[in-house]
Amino acid sequence: MTEKENLTPSTRIKLLLVDDEEGFVNVIANRMSKRGIDATKALSGSDALKAIRKQDFDLAVVDLKMQEMDGIELLRILKKMIPEMPVIVLTGHGSERAAEDGMEYGAYDYLTKPCEMDELMEKIHEALARGR
User: Fold this and answer.
1) Contacts 24+ apart (CB under 8 A), 50-55
2) What pLDDT does 22 receive?
3) Which residues in the chain belong to E strands, given as ranges?
4) Total structural domains in the chain?
5) What domain range includes position 81?
């Protein structure tokens, strides 16, 4: 076990994972759990907003393309609610321009889906280190 995987519940990273693809969210949350991250799953923007009102998060990973509320709209709301919380945007291949637009609204960074888990973990740790 690595040091990051052996964290106590109080020191584990609390991440809000927002994506309307339930299978993707379940797989990523499970893989993050093994790497010292407590990922709360939200399958829509409104689910994410409900979660953020109940609990504090260290950061959020938000899909750009969702049905009810897109990732940019959610990002804008999150940045008004918790300006200091880093948000990493995930985007499907071909919509990098939209993800770059997200950077203008305060996203920490973006990754193109599907992304490597190691790359996502690196961005998460970079975002948290920069915020501290």
Assistant:
1) 51/16, 52/16, 52/78, 52/81, 52/82, 55/14
2) 96
3) 13-18, 37-42, 59-63, 87-92, 109-113
4) 1
5) 4-131
